[in-house]
């Protein structure tokens, strides 16, 4: 192989490597766009089921796409605009009436998320409003909530019936939602900044019993030598 042939081969290899990298990057972008589009469609489906409450859809977007740059107000505006457009062109009814495998899977995913989100919202309300940490026995039978009655927990017919299966479902639910088992401390919750400010304040020292009786703390410097009381009295008696 001549020098020119070797140089051409190196150029071809470099060109092929760059082309493969560009193709991989393009596939990654297309995959990301398809994933984001799928997440948005399911968020819209959740909003259609829970209309006019946008909280479940916003929570789904946050959990499914943490890198989302939209604010809650922007997401709410987009969901309202989508819902009004879907009603106007009749696509909302078609979405609800679809019987394809993908549609059935999307509806099942939306229903499952709504039930779990309502359970999490009920737990959060019990923690923050009532100061109560519900025990596992309550969560074992609680799957979905009634929006009209926040304190009422309705049983889900598809929920596991065996106690061990319920505990396994609870472990998976806690892992998905970042819930930990613990105790709710009594007392008013203080913001971190306020707690730090209070910690910087120098508190006055507590008075001892001697200080209450009028005793004075010993001063620095040379101390006077005091004889024992019996020798002083003895000296007084001898005078």
Task: Describe what this molecule looks like in 3D.
- The chain has 239 residues and is mainly α.
- It folds into 2 domains: 9-97; 99-179, no CATH class.
- Helix content is 65%, strand content 2%.
- It contains 10 helices and 2 strands; from the N terminus they run ααααααββαααα.
- The chain has helices at residues 3-50, 55-64, 72-89, 91-97, 101-128, 136-141, 163-177, 192-200, 209-212, 229-238, and strands at 144-145, 153-154.
- Strands 1-2 form a two-stranded antiparallel ribbon.
- A hairpin with a 7-residue loop joins β1 and β2 (153-154).
- α1 packs antiparallel against α2 (55-64).
- The longest helix has 48 residues, at 3-50.
- It is extended and about 80 Å long.
- The model is unreliable at 144-155 and 208-239 (pLDDT under 50).
Q: Averaging pLDDT over every residue, what do you get? A: 75
Regions with pLDDT < 50 over 5+ consecutive residues?
144-155, 208-239
Question: In percent, how helical is the residue content?
Answer: 55-70%
Number of domains: 2
* Spatial strand sequence of the major β-sheet: 1-2
Task: Look at the helices and sheets and give the structural class.
Answer: mainly alpha
Major sheet: 2 strands, antiparallel
Distance between termini? Answer: 130 Å
- Cα gyration radius (Å): 35 Å
Note the overall shape: extended
Portion in beta strands: under 5%
User: Secondary-structure element sequence?
Assistant: HHHHHHEEHHHH
Total DSSP helices: 10
Number of strands: 2
